[in-house]
Write a structure and sequence with these properties.
- The chain is mainly alpha-helical.
- The protein folds into two domains: about 290 residues, no CATH class; about 160 residues, no CATH class.
- It has 22 helices and two strands.
- A two-stranded antiparallel sheet has the order 1-2.
- Strand 1 and strand 2 form a beta hairpin.
- Helix 14 runs antiparallel to helix 15 and helix 18 packs antiparallel against helix 19.
- The protein is globular.
- The two termini are about 20 Å apart.
């Protein structure tokens, strides 16, 4: 088992290079934006990108997941047939959907609440959608073939190009938020062209109707499910905008971005986890292996949560230039939402862990129910709490929706693929997080958090893991040695 965990760790580390370094480079845009773009324009940009996230899901409609599922089950001989069927059909539908968006430009702009002076951003949005969609299945193929190195290089180059163009177009050409869309489009086009050799190597001009029917049956449930999941991720933006204003949305979104460090961990795990459990599902000790991986995930996530919760404000207020902080001063009023967002991402990670049974047993029909429940909860809690608690209400809505999604997927996964998780350790970790969070907010809103309080909470948090035997000494030493041996 230790070798299998080591294998997952290596893949997670490799994907983590592109994910962590790439997202961190992208995160550098947050201090840049919040120091050169006002809260109003930042809110407009955030709202448009929320709709871009929805449309990304519509354009791919679960075909990338279907491709990974069936490509992992077939031999090399069927590889080109599987790739071509999925890729060509996605290409055809992408151009069709893009045409619809172009022809219905006026009503879509009104729905998205794009100000007249920014209506040209809509055209960039359509082109970004096309290039991003055409790159998804080739990227999935690289993951499936465990070509993590090539995957990493292309992803990093995309991010670096995007970052560089943002600085150039904003500072030199003074294009404002239009620069964000131009840079994104250029980076998306780059990824597509960089993947072209991979596409040409695997494609034949033929769509197998029998294969396509099978992929659609597996993948289409992802459309409502993924749309609902996207609602959970981004619906807070248009709701915050509708109930407050562009400036409040800008403040909320800038501080939400500080949850990126937990999101990075969850994302890099997800990239490695999906192909890992698909290829190891038939192993004799698969369920025991998956159980242990969940415990390790929660321990690491808990440690990340406490460090970020205690020190994220110091990080956000750090001045890298005179008068220029990591998060612009006019955005810092929303820093208190960060621990809630971090915890929400932990439950998002639990949701991804529980996907194993659903994938293995081909029970994707449950996704719409689970994500739909999360989406409904998100919208309802947002509407109820934002008028009372402001942006803290939006953060709590995100947490509530991820808890419901994780619980729902756990229920259906256990029903068809039961795994005996280490429940004692999992609940101890969550308990320590909740108790620490309560103490944190009490101190935050009363006496404030000085270095003494932070040290006390950090030591107490980590010490409780050992005291309650969440982390056992022998196991801890073995894991450390395993990490040191990874090459």
């Amino acid at each position: 088992m230790i070798e299998k965990i080591k294998e997952l760790t290596k893949d997670t580390a490799i994907y983590g290079i592109s994910t962590i370094v790439g997202r961190f480079l992208g995160f550098l845009l947050v201090p840049f934006y919040t120091n050169v773009i006002n809260t109003n324009d930042y809110g407009i940009y955030s709202n448009i990108y929320a709709y871009l996230a929805f449309l990304n899901i519509v354009f791919i409609y679960g075909m990338d997941s279907a491709f990974m599922k069936y490509a992992s089950l077939n031999g090399v001989a069927d590889k080109k047939k599987i790739f071509s069927t999925a890729y060509l059909f996605v290409a055809i539908t992408s151009f069709g959907l893009a045409l619809i968006l172009f022809l219905l430009k006026s009503p879509f702009i009104r729905v998205m609440e794009i100000p007249v002076q920014y209506s040209n951003l809509y055209h960039y949005l359509i082109l970004i959608l096309i290039f991003d969609t055409l790159a998804l299945i080739p990227f999935a193929n690289l993951r499936l073939e465990r070509k993590a190195g090539k995957f990493t290089v292309i992803k990093l180059a995309n991010i670096i190009l995007n970052l560089a163009l943002n600085f150039i177009l904003v500072l030199k050409f003074e294009l404002g938020i239009e620069a964000i869309f131009i840079a994104n489009l250029a980076a998306s086009a780059f990824s597509f062209f960089a993947l072209t050799p991979e596409i040409l190597k695997n494609i034949i001009v033929k769509i197998d109707k029998a294969e396509l029917k099978k992929y659609l049956k597996f993948g289409l449930p992802y459309l409502p499910a993924s749309l609902a999941a996207t609602v959970v991720q981004v619906i807070d933006r248009p709701v915050v905008l509708a109930l407050t204003n562009e400036s409040t949305l800008g403040i909320y979104q800038a501080n939400y971005k500080l949850g990126i460090f937990m999101m990075l961990f969850v994302s890099m795990f997800q990239y490695a986890w999906q192909p890992f459990f698909l290829t190891n599902a038939k192993e004799k000790n698969a369920k025991e292996l998956f159980s242990k991986i969940l415990t390790i995930f929660m321990i690491i996530a808990g440690l990340i949560w406490i460090v970020l919760t205690l020190f994220v404000e110091d990080f956000a207020r750090f001045e890298f230039l005179s008068g220029k902080s990591i998060i612009g001063r006019e955005f810092l009023g929303g820093i208190s939402i960060v621990p809630i967002i971090l915890l929400a991402y932990i439950f998002n990670g639990l949701y991804y862990n529980f996907q194993a049974g659903i994938y293995i047993e081909e029970k994707t029909k449950y996704y719409p129910y689970v994500t739909g429940a999360g989406a409904i909860a998100n919208v309802v809690v947002n509407i109820l709490l934002i008028p009372v608690l402001g942006i803290m209400g939006a953060a709590l809505a995100t947490l509530a929706s991820y808890i419901i999604m994780a619980a729902g997927l756990y229920y259906f996964s256990q029903k068809h693929y039961p795994i005996k998780y280490e429940y004692g350790k999992i609940f101890k970790i969550l308990g320590v997080i909740i108790i620490t969070g309560i103490i944190y907010y009490y101190l935050y809103y009363t006496s404030g958090l000085n270095i003494l309080y932070k040290t006390f909470l950090l030591v107490g948090f980590i010490g409780s893991f050992f005291a309650m035997k969440v982390i056992e000494k022998n196991e801890f030493v073995r894991v450390i040695k395993m990490f040191l041996r990874i090459k």
